[in-house]
Known about the structure:
Blueprint: H1 2-20, H2 26-36, H3 39-74, H4 86-97, H5 99-108, E1 110-116, H6 125-140, H7 151-167, H8 178-209, E2 227-228, H9 242-269, H10 282-294, H11 296-305, H12 310-327, H13 337-353, H14 357-360, H15 363-374, E3 380-381, E4 383-386, H16 387-400, H17 408-427, E5 434-438, H18 443-457, E6 467-472, H19 475-488, H20 492-501, E7 504-510, H21 512-518, H22 520-540, E8 544-550, H23 562-566, E9 577-583, H24 585-591, H25 594-610, H26 614-626, H27 628-646, H28 651-658, H29 661-666, H30 688-697, H31 708-715, H32 718-727, H33 729-743, H34 747-754, H35 760-781, H36 791-820, H37 827-845
Parallel strand pairs: 1-2, 1-9, 2-3, 4-5, 5-6, 6-7, 7-8, 8-9
Amino acid sequence: xxxxxxxxxxxxxxxxxxxxxxxxxxxxxxxxxxxxxxxxxxxxxxxxxxxxxxxxxxxxxxxxxxxxxxxxxxxxxxxxxxxxxxxxxxxxxxxxxxxxxxxxxxxxxxxxxxxxxxxxxxxxxxxxxxxxxxxxxxxxxxxxxxxxxxxxxxxxxxxxxxxxxxxxxxxxxxxxxxxxxxxxxxxxxxxxxxxxxxxxxxxxxxxxxxxxxxxxxxxxxxxxxxxxxxxxxxxxxxxxxxxxxxxxxxxxxxxxxxxxxxxxxxxxxxxxxxxxxxxxxxxxxxxxxxxxxxxxxxxxxxxxxxxxxxxxxxxxxxxxxxxxxxxxxxxxxxxxxxxxxxxxxxxxxxxxxxxxxxxxxxxxxxxxxxxxxxxxxxxxxxxxxxxxxxxxxxxxxxxxxxxxxxxxxxxxxxxxxxxxxxxxxxxxxxxxxxxxxxxxxxxxxxxxxxxxxxxxxxxxxxxxxxxxxxxxxxxxxxxxxxxxxxxxxxxxxxxxxxxxxxxxxxxxxxxxxxxxxxxxxxxxxxxxxxxxxxxxxxxxxxxxxxxxxxxxxxxxxxxxxxxxxxxxxxxxxxxxxxxxxxxxxxxxxxxxxxxxxxxxxxxxxxxxxxxxxxxxxxxxxxxxxxxxxxxxxxxxxxxxxxxxxxxxxxxxxxxxxxxxxxxxxxxxxxxxxxxxxxxxxxxxxxxxxxxxxxxxxxxxxxxxxxxxxxxxxxxxxxxxxxxxxxxxxxxxxxxxxxxxxxxxxxxxxxxxxxxxxxxxxxxxxxxxxxxxxxxxxxxxxxxxxxxxxxxxxxxxxxxxxxxxxxxxxxxxxxxxxxxxxxxxxxxxxxxxxxxxxxxxxxxxxxxxx
Length: 849
């Protein structure tokens, strides 16, 4: 209605004026307007601004896709920068190490994104689906042709979908279950990843083979392997049980088998090659006879569907066997994906022998790449548990015996290990063999995994394949990492695995808790130093090391452009292998659209290759040595200032007052609790996600920058800092990421949140450090304003900021009402308004947790 539109417009205009004229009275007038809304009207206005962000984000995302398409259609890959193009990265690497070595490294490169369900995706699935439908209609406007859909018809459908989005309740009624989270991410696989990975391989292969593409065996080996914590990560999440883990593995398997069946059927449809001109090889004929013996009725039927078409006939039988694998028909099912791969290779060789190379290396190769990438398990399900849970389980068993009356949690721990065996028996060892130990603080924490597994199976001989992966999270853990790893090498179970797997070891680094522990700058420097020491340890012990980066989407949790971060890693620490967590809303931002997903994968793999280029490694090594004294001084000053704030008396309670921390914990956006069990009287057990999410909602983003300004000021040498920014990739990445974080802060809005707590001393510390950090970042980058050198990004943030301000004022109104408690009968309505604004601010700032 007109009245609501008028209220939205008044707030919008005041927010824009307040942003453009910060010294004027517009912000106070906007706050006064919001205070005069009824709660119902405030809720409607919040929903209107949230819808605006969903639509603006959709338009911006599609524009990125359009630009990518135009660039790929017109640009020579060689003309692109090496860190932006996989072909260009291969050329750059070959210039330094030679063609043969570059091709060898390309064959061995690994990219392992691990999808996690951390609760930072604030949108309902119904809202996400509505946005996706709108996105498809926006794209349709670019491909209309004469005789096709008219613009008027597109307008009609687009307006109908926008109206549906407006009328769809933005809040979930209940928290999603773990299996709901599994299904949500499987939807991303179905809509993009199943097709994107083979498309990325194909594009690179086409470039490498040039004129021979499609007529000879591909040179690209699948380099991406999906991992998943969803249904396996039980650290602090009592909803992840052994039964849930089994179900998660089954859901993933069912999804990939459906996709492989569809892909095989599509491939079969294109193999209508007559046997007279394209005869079957003797190997294919022998395979057909083996297939016939499995089911004569099916063989008769598919033969009738493909008369004298031996290659199509075999693929149609493959389709039937994939369906049988999904339905668990033991007589017809494949035992493992390797068996399917072997059958497809027989078909491929037969086509090559008959001279049909384009068919051999066309859709059939795409299907082979899918099988090699996803197997029958789709993603490697990784398990995670806290070291103290294992310690408690061992103590319980020691006290009562393995057959005694054990605590329910101990029984669950043992059942989890038995579940690993069940999953491996059905889907193979790669389906679930990594067991990550949170807060690994001693070698015994890794030994406990093997000890509990042996107790669960009644002896070492029956235990499935298990790789215990340490997760070093806090500053102290990072410091102790090498000593713990060295002691673990002596475990017989570890020695056995090293003999079996080519001496491969994985080590996980936690970005979130280290940042919450010592501040973002000190955490980054500590992680960098830990990687150097762990890399040297691996070299000394002839270990093939994979460092697993537990990065979040927000800058306070290691976020930022992954390709730039890769090129700043310590020499030798990447070595052609990159593994990281992809969390919450980041999954949909990076993999929700096939064009953006392909670009992200190519960028990361290009950077993974380039990180090992001699020039990059030498530059990083020299910079690290040259700026080591500077790093030490920055670390000391930053950590001291960060601790002055977070260790102040009453800080945890004040933090909960001035941000929507408690309310974020109520938001039904994930199956995991926001805390591990303690109250807000302690930050120790507060999860890093609500820590970052809450500061983000308050437009402070403290987790991304606090302590840096003081550290830079302590150096008081602008020339030295500018030199570091120019020549030290790690420092440049830190400064650029902090600049992005500061761009999404607002001092005037932040001050209003900080005023909710009765601690002017702490509020002033925060505001002073924000101003100090901004001043030094601008000086180091020689900029007049934040993001002024990054025009496109700066414009996107600038356009959004006034609209986020409007939502922040609505959120502040709700928070004030809840904090004062003046009208407890309205608390539920205030809480609902607050949660609606959380959705809106999350959509506006775009990296919540």
